[in-house]
Design goal:
Bound molecules: flavin-adenine dinucleotide
Distance between the termini: 57 Å
Oligomer: single chain
CATH architecture of one domain: Alpha-Beta Complex
Number of helices: 15
Largest sheet: 7 strands, mixed
Radius of gyration: 22 Å
Strand content: 15-25%
Number of strands: 21
Length: 503
Amino acid sequence: MKNYREFDVVILGGGLAGMYTAMNLDRELKIGMFIKDKIDKGSSNLAQGGIAAEIKFDEAKIKEHYEDTLRAGSNLNNKEAVEILVNEAGENIRNLVSMGVNFDKDQNGEFIKTLEGGHRSRRILHAGGDATGESVMRDLRESLKKYTNIDVFEDEMAIQIITDDNNKAIGLVCINNNNEPDYVFTNKIVIATGGCGGVYKNSTNEKFAVGDGIALAYRAGIKIENMEFVQFHPTGLYEPEKRGRVFLISEAVRGEGAILRNIEGQRFMDKYDKERMELAPRDVVSQAIKREMFDTWSDHVYLDIRHKTKDFLMHRFPTIYEKCMSIGVDMSKDLIPVTPIEHFLCGGIASDLCGHTSMEGVYAVGECANTGVHGANRLASNSLLECLVFGKRVADDINASKEELSKRTIKFPPVIGEPRKFNFKSIRVEIRDTMDKYVQIVRTEEGLNLAKKIIERHYKNLKKINVMSRYYFETLNMATVALIIIDAALSRNESIGCHCRLN
Ligand SMILES: Cc1cc2nc3c(=O)[nH]c(=O)nc-3n(C[C@H](O)[C@H](O)[C@H](O)COP(=O)(O)OP(=O)(O)OC[C@H]3O[C@@H](n4cnc5c(N)ncnc54)[C@H](O)[C@@H]3O)c2cc1C
């Protein structure tokens, strides 16, 4: 008999989506949180700018947030989901604060709010200046210690959903750091595995964020949607020859007045969006920068916030200020070199307004999910909000079915494969380079087909072998997610939001 663990609910991922869902579940439920890496890693911990939320009930302001979200998403959003997002923002922020999370406040104890691209009002709450994610997640982890019903397992990567004869999810296979399978049986699975920036050569995400949850769901036959909408952040810090995770210069820097200049020193956003200029949504600004880089034969542009004092910059953006200084750039005197970088996945595992996916017993929440709130392009600072609002809805849905959660089926799947020492590095490098070259901000049919040919060859070869190792599954997941993005990009001929097709 193999060893296994049992839980009422299993959460995959310890980012904001996974953590907040777990902490809103009924305390009588036995919860297992399985995390691929360490609990303090992942995009939620890296978030800088903040969380968009109208916290006081003001119908006009909430409507404005709704409209800004639709406008940024080119109206391809699920309007019902957006309504929920903006209307339930305030109560979830209050809930978060009651769980021990702190946001930056002024001398009168009022939340300080900032502005980012695509927002018409200052509605973005932040913490630790420009370290919102680090601060919020640290506070939440501190509170998590009081939840004796939640067991956390680090370095456990989920690789397969186990189903019963009716195709209902009954458990999971995870792989630990010794490349051994760990079996987990449960009634409800919540996939909260984050984005897929690690499929690209450069991204603001951690390298291990390769869309595992999406690939895992895809292998189980769960519906995936809107994968062509990969958002590129306009202002990743430009460091020549850098591979892997790129440091982000938050949109809040433009919110505080920074302007963009090309390498010849000219401000250029008036050519692309006269009304909103540097504070246009990310798809518009990234595509504008790409065009300027093309026209000036260069691989970066500049951000200019030299009109602000050193003192202001050091206090408002302590993390960014320090990082810039570490490469010899003093924001108060120098231009900051920046370039657009893969940042966020707008699509993902199709999920309804309570997080249900197309498979019974499986929910999806956070960046890996496609609730439809982002449409063709995410509005800045709406993703942490999505983790909260839909995480709470998933928890409420599970809590309502609490009574059913005691019955469990234990059925082991066939053994997957033997552990081998292969590291598949050359395949990972080629996938990342191919995505970087052909599945970028601007795409062509020829480039997408070329990318498909290269990655499909790797995918087919990987499928032929059967290896029980983290490297194997991570590489297979990368190829899977890359192909889903490419197929989605090929099937949408129009340019809309962050999907820009030249032909
Ligand atoms: C640099 C940066 C700055 C950002 N700034 C902002 C901002 O200011 N405001 C905003 O709204 N959004 C921001 N975002 C986006 C936002 O941070 C993310 O969309 C959000 O945090 C996603 O949360 P999540 O819980 O879905 O995923 P994550 O926080 O990425 O967590 C994913 C979790 O899943 C785990 N995992 C992955 N695969 C597996 C597996 N196979 N098995 C088990 N566990 C797995 C990971 O280990 C991790 O714990 C930023 C993102 C980045 C990268």
